[in-house]
Amino acid sequence: MNYELKSIQPGSVFFNALRIFVIVGFIVAVLSFFILPNPNIRITLWWQKILATFLFTVVYALVVSLVLTLIAWLYNLWAASFSGIKVSLEQQPEE
To answer: Which helix (H) or strand (E) holds 86?
Structure first.
């Protein structure tokens, strides 16, 4: 069976990416501010590190989600005029 992906809903991309990259951003922030701190960033107080972790997580998740949403929107724009992503699926016999 051959299928062609012609449209991606940008809203679903945004909300799913937001959920995923809040977690990824939090992990990166904890690594960056607590576990492997950059010596060039002089954040010494614990409440500053917590605030920096929160801000980094929110900004990272929003920026990455918006970029992925833009990519989905551009894909829809170009897939309307050209061929989309082609996927060939084969059914495996049950054992």
So the answer is: strand 85-88
